[in-house]
From TrEMBL:
Gene3D superfamilies: EAL domain. Keywords: Membrane, Transmembrane, Transmembrane helix. This is EAL domain-containing protein. The lineage of its organism: Bacteria, Pseudomonadati, Pseudomonadota, Alphaproteobacteria, Sphingomonadales. It comes from Sphingomonas donggukensis. The keyword Transport does not apply. Residues 1-26 are annotated as: Disordered. SUPFAM superfamilies: EAL domain-like.
Length: 785
């Protein structure tokens, strides 16, 4: 346990200051030191681009104040979600693009510009010939060129239109320049492909010239939402007044986030790349923009900050400060109206230091005292913990109340104090006298001995939170996970972060607690490229589907299986699903992975059906997909392609996801059920669901979490929970699946309790299809014998 830190005694310098202040020489040396470090920090910020996020936010505010409408000379024909739904899955055939050229040419478009690559052959040579003929006939078509990353060589290679197309069209570049924060702030004037200089699409649309290697800043004050956009489906179907294209430059581009080609735009979020090219053209139409960067504002701020810190006359110092603040906050607005752009964050660092350095010295001691206490609860906060002496051999334990923010937002301050008091009282039972520190958003940390922070003790502490807290007579469920750090040779700040990381991982893996594993975070390069590697792994066959069999209790036969995704990496070996599935969900890239698993699982079930065997298949569905359109269409298409009856498919959604589902998700679940597909509540028992939630979710199946099953024969409370769940589910007409069954004793208990289906290592581990077929055949032969 960490000993309390004694209050620091004032230094000799501090006592001297309280008696009359530092000497002038000492003050100047102190200010010079501050000025030197501030200058260094500002230089590093500018050189590394660390201030770009703040600069972007300030620029967003300025853009809102000087919002501009586009010229209207460019119209976007968007390949949006509605176009894909009406005309077919993307990418389209060449004939679709041929139809777009013919329609737009007939409508009198000035230029027909494709922000789509045509570097590969189409489905048929006839389609390519018709497309080339349409380009030649139109005579005003521009095609996109870009680059692609060659994984074999690790270099970028050109991606240009096929010769049969490019000989009839103008070529424009759609290359983008990324900032260090992965946003697009500048576009090139031109690029070089196969030795030829190709103008950028933006420059070509604006009629502007520029050398290869030169760039121009984008003016984000131009309203992206005001860019005229027409659905490609309406153009092909002629469902609109086609005169809207007469005399206009028409850009055919992706306008759907699900398709891809997504970039981050400060102030607008994620935007398809075609709109960035339109934005670049609109910027150039207003004149040639100038980007002065950060260094000139930095030099001006350096001069004014030096005057503010070192001038003898107070009025000169204040004037310098006012001028510096004005120059960094107001001057950029007027400059941008003249098409001059600058970054001011490095300059602001100098200005901020000159403004607050004196006040900081005066209030430092009182701030430190006030800053170590949580204002609501009175508990010491994490700042106080970071100031303690080294923890030695102690174990650092972090508790994170997952729903704390949601609860506290609905409580008055006295209610939040009561809630924290109850949480701290329960934690104190597990901490056994250790001092508990409170962080923001439901974080609590303490240091204790390894014996007090063992697995059994943490399990017991977690059990205390199964009972709701009472605030003003109102019961409140608390969702708590724990993380521990036992590595004593690091500073407390790192150890606190490690324990919190472990608590978050426990929540993500539906565990009660987890110990920090530093090796898991060591491969930073792997994590940074995980999603790109995952997409490639799906295409290459490294990702595959395993099947864990399910036993039907009544018949004694294996009646189905759960599809579980696996990744066998040639170098890293087996990659944990918790690692890449969670990353895909957080990165909004779960669609492709889910469709891959669904397709494989449905084909497997259909193969059993083709042999005359009844076989059910279960697939996990991310809660993020329930909010997206198109899930039902994808599932129905896969079922139709494999001719699998919908009642043979079960889609599993976790209990916590089901409980937090919005109306759109509930409607999706209802629609799933309406077409005959089964819905299962997975991990039941871990989300504090109520009877109301149980009735609300349109499920046909309940899957009891393994944490309640694996101690069923030894824990009376778990047995009671399982029995009540089975009885409740049966009363509502739902079947019950128990997962995590590993012993004959637990199987016998579940049979007595009336469980419908069994899943676990006792029946079979996750396996490949061929092994599953052999397992079913062996059990069938054994039963017949």
């Amino acid at each position: 346990m960490l000993p309390p830190r004694p209050d620091a005694r004032p230094s000799d310098g501090a006592r001297a200051e309280s008696r009359g202040g530092e000497s002038r020489g000492g003050r100047r040396r102190s200010l010079a030191k501050i000025f030197g470090w501030a200058t260094l920090a500002a230089l590093v910020t500018g050189l590394l681009g660390l201030g770009q996020p703040v600069d972007d936010y300030m620029r967003m505010a300025r853009n809102m104040a000087r919002k501009q409408v586009p010229s209207g000379e460019i119209v976007v024909v968007g390949i949006d979600d509605r176009s894909v739904e009406r005309l077919g899955t993307w990418p389209w055939s060449r004939d679709r693009h041929t139809a777009l050229i013919n329609r737009l040419k007939a409508a009198g478009a000035r230029h027909i510009v494709f922000d789509i690559f045509f570097h590969s052959p189409g489905a048929t040579k006839a389609e390519d010939r018709r497309f080339a003929a349409a380009i030649e006939k139109a005579g005003n078509v521009w095609l996109a060129a870009g680059t692609t990353y060659d994984r074999a060589t690790g270099v970028l290679r050109p991606k240009t239109p096929r010769a049969e197309f490019s000989k009839h069209a103008n070529i424009v570049s759609v290359a983008m320049n990324y900032s260090v924060m992965a946003s697009v702030r500048q576009l090139p004037y031109a690029a070089r492909y196969h030795g030829d200089v190709v103008p950028s699409m933006a420059a070509a649309l604006a009629g502007a010239d520029g050398a290869v290697g030169t760039t121009f800043p984008l003016d984000y004050a131009i309203d992206l939402k005001a860019i005229k956009t027409v659905s490609a489906a309406d153009v092909i179907a002629k469902d609109i007044d086609m005169s809207v294209f007469a005399g206009k430059d028409v850009l055919i581009a992706v306008a759907s986030r699900d398709i891809g080609d997504i970039y981050f735009v400060p102030g607008s979020g994620l935007v398809n790349g075609g709109y960035l090219n339109v934005l670049g053209a609109e910027t150039l139409k207003r004149g040639r923009p100038i980007n002065v960067g950060w260094f000139i504002p930095f030099i001006i701020a350096l001069t004014l900050s030096a005057i503010n810190l070192f001038a003898a006359n107070i009025w000169i110092r204040r004037t310098a400060l006012v001028l510096a603040v004005f120059g960094a906050t107001v001057l950029p607005f007027f400059a941008e109206t003249r098409h001059i752009f600058m970054d001011v964050m490095p300059a602001l660092i100098l200005i901020a230091v000159s403004a607050i350095s004196g006040a900081w010295a005066n209030f430092r001691r009182s701030y430190k005292a006030r800053g170590n206490i949580n204002a609501v609860s009175g508990l010491p906060n994490l700042n106080a913990l970071r100031g303690e002496t080294a923890a030695g051999d102690c174990v650092l334990v972090a508790a994170r109340v997952r729903n704390f923010a949601e609860i506290s937002s609905s409580l008055p301050s006295e209610g939040e104090r009561s809630l924290v008091d109850q949480i701290a009282a329960r934690l104190a039972l597990g901490a056994r006298g250790a001092r508990i520190y409170q962080g923001d958003e439901g974080i609590f940390v303490w240091a204790t001995s390894p014996e007090v922070a063992g697995p059994d003790q943490l399990d017991a502490l977690h059990a205390l939170f199964r009972s709701p807290a009472l605030v003003n007579g109102r019961p409140i469920d608390l969702s708590v996970t724990f993380g521990t750090d036992t590595i004593a040779d690091r500073d407390l700040a790192n150890r606190i972060g490690a324990a919190l990381v472990a608590a978050d991982e426990a929540a993500a893996e539906n565990l009660r607690w987890k110990a920090y594993d530093p090796a898991k975070l060591a491969d930073a390069e792997w994590k940074l490229s995980l999603l790109g590697r995952l997409d490639a792994a799906i295409d290459s066959g490294e990702v595959w589907v395993a099947y864990q069999p399910q036993l039907d209790v009544a018949s004694g036969r294996i009646s189905g299986a759960e599809a579980l995704v696996r990744w066998s990496h040639p170098e890293k070996g087996e990659v944990s699903p918790m690692e890449f599935v969670l990353a895909a969900e957080q990165g909004n890239r779960i669609d492709k992975l889910t469709e891959f698993v669904l397709s494989d699982a449905i084909k497997t079930a259909a193969s059993f059906a083709a042999r005359g065997e009844t076989f059910d298949i279960a697939v996990n569905i991310s809660a993020r997909l329930l909010e997206k359109p198109g899930l039902i269409g994808t599932v129905r298409r896969l079922l139709d392609e494999s001719r699998l009856p919908p009642e043979r498919l079960t889609l599993e959604v976790t209990e916590s996801a089901a409980m937090t589902s919005g109306r759109a998700s509930i409607r999706t679940l209802e629609e799933i059920g309406s077409v005959g597909i089964n819905v299962s509540i997975d991990d039941y028992g871990t989300g504090f669901s109520t009877l109301e939630y149980f009735k609300k979710i349109p499920a046909t199946e309940v899957k009891i979490d393994k944490s309640f099953v694996n101690l069923l024969d030894r824990n009376a409370s778990d047995r009671l929970m399982v029995r009540s769940t089975i009885e409740l589910a049966h009363s509502l007409g739902r079947i019950v699946v128990a997962e995590g069954v590993e012993t004959d004793e637990i199987l016998a208990e579940l049979v007595k309790l009336g469980c419908d289906r069994i899943q676990g290592y006792l029946i079979g581990r996750p396996m490949k299809v061929a092994q599953l077929v052999r397992l079913i055949a062996d059990r069938t032969h054994a039963a017949a014998a």
